[in-house]
Amino acid sequence: MKNELLSIGEMAKINNISVSTLRLYDEIGLIKPCYIDKESRYRYYNIRQNARLDMIQYMKALGMELKEIKEVLESGDTKLIESILIHRKKQVKEQMANLNLQLAAISRTIESLERYRKSPSIGTITIEYIPHRKIYSLPTSINFYEYGIEVYENELKELKNSLIKHNLPQIYYCNAGTTMKKESFLAGKLESDEIFVLVDDNFPQSESIKRIDSGMYVCIYLDSFDDEPEYAKRLLEYCTENEYKVVGDYICEVLTEFSVFDDEKRGMFLRLQVPVAFR
Amino acid sequence: MKNELLSIGEMAKINNISVSTLRLYDEIGLIKPCYIDKESRYRYYNIRQNARLDMIQYMKALGMELKEIKEVLESGDTKLIESILIHRKKQVKEQMANLNLQLAAISRTIESLERYRKSPSIGTITIEYIPHRKIYSLPTSINFYEYGIEVYENELKELKNSLIKHNLPQIYYCNAGTTMKKESFLAGKLESDEIFVLVDDNFPQSESIKRIDSGMYVCIYLDSFDDEPEYAKRLLEYCTENEYKVVGDYICEVLTEFSVFDDEKRGMFLRLQVPVAFR
DNA sequence: TAAAACTCTAAACCTGCATTAGAGTTTTTG
DNA sequence: CAAAAACTCTAATGCAGGTTTAGAGTTTTA
Questions:
Q1: What is the pTM of this model?
Q2: Sheet (strand A43-46) strand order
Q3: A114 CB contacts (<8 Å, ≥6 apart)?
Q4: Angle at CA A142, nearest 5°, toward A139 and A143?
Q5: What is the mean pLDDT of chain A?
Q6: Which chain B residue has the Cα nearest residue A95?
Q7: Contact A99 B100 (CB under 8 A)
């Protein structure tokens, strides 16, 4: 080893970088060794080349791509750096917004799992206070109760596409549900009114956002859409028997949905609910 | 096309996903078409399979890897989902912290570029108010002024390694500088005291953090370390001539460093400075 | 019936490296 | 001073999560 020169391994070590990374950077022309032995083809670096390597690492830490870094280093144009950085700044902000949504969604999901684990058995009827909720909803174009799951799936797709079309975060597309007018419910007819996803305060303002008021709800739990008619009937009967007055629209809420099985049914946990008043 | 079945293109379209992605998912067994024509090998999906695909997309949106998703879907174990999500939550938080640092660093760099563009020409002497700063510093083990740039580079490396060793964000390793005791400066001797990087309030608390007080500084601008002795001398002369009293340590601050050129020198913009009092 | 649109498989490409194999070189050790 | 240890070389392969392409075959539409 020449006195002033650093072998690739030494260069790697003092810069906390791997040898293969240095070779890659040589190959793509980001930083070339200042001397290459003609016989052995060994690469040798000068400690002064740290400056360039530092710059590369700094730009990498800013999230720039190697291509961009190379471009910048080659052009020596600070305007170019600046424009890349300004662009990068936007990217980072978007990423942060996304991560925030993710974090919230993860927390919701964990809670949802916890609730699933502790939830009452199928068919249980409860009377619960439910805090107010916000939903992003779309009116249903067909009464899917008459047509079955395929039509429901289509409506759901439309809801999702509506989110995509309006550039809204799809990550909410998990806790879905449907509503039905009080009148239909009381008449014992199943007539879908809206299909929705639950959203939180991070969700952007939109015309399609509605608030469902807090209150006491009579609820029944089930695990399949197929059983909804049967259980909705039971819910109505229960209200009638106990003389609870239904004071708002019926909601079918998907509490948990884990299609973890290989068959094609949605593996679900549902809660049918109507707000009631006590005589 | 069979009536109830969706071709891969249709399935892709209604799920806002690409055909090739669907093929990939088939290949790795994430979601298999419910029917494959034996002759043409065309894939056909059922709209009910949307449930599974939704679940996949949701888990992807949570940042899970395809491998993990597959595992979860195969096991059907909600405990597994939960543990993955809890782990993921940590990851997301770390990522956010990183992005925050990045964002701050990008902003600093953009400002730094702006300053560079509007900065006075080489040799200009100014008297400026400089707000207080925080530095992460290491005492220099050798007086690099006696040995030249290589030794300085080594000291710099040590500073960087100190950051790495203490698990501190390297992203600050950009605006570096050195200090020298007031006495050395006044004696006209170049004796390095500390080497540092500027940090902001995001930087974790550490023993090596010092505060440099705000105040009026006499400054001189230059663009190469090689000129530091010459310009430091001029700075001292200027203070003497104008009878400014030096009231603190000398600082050599790297305002901008863009090693954008292919040679091995640090392409820099420096500001030498001493805090002064007026008689 | 022909053209247009779709789908198939297989392989290559993308980023930013890490890893490995097999051969050659330098440095250290006895 | 030779052998062993440590290092380095090139070239290829792999990773994730896809996208793109080529060339051939299939369905749908006009």
A1: 0.83
A2: A5-7, A43-46, A35-36
A3: none
A4: 95
A5: 89
A6: B99
A7: no
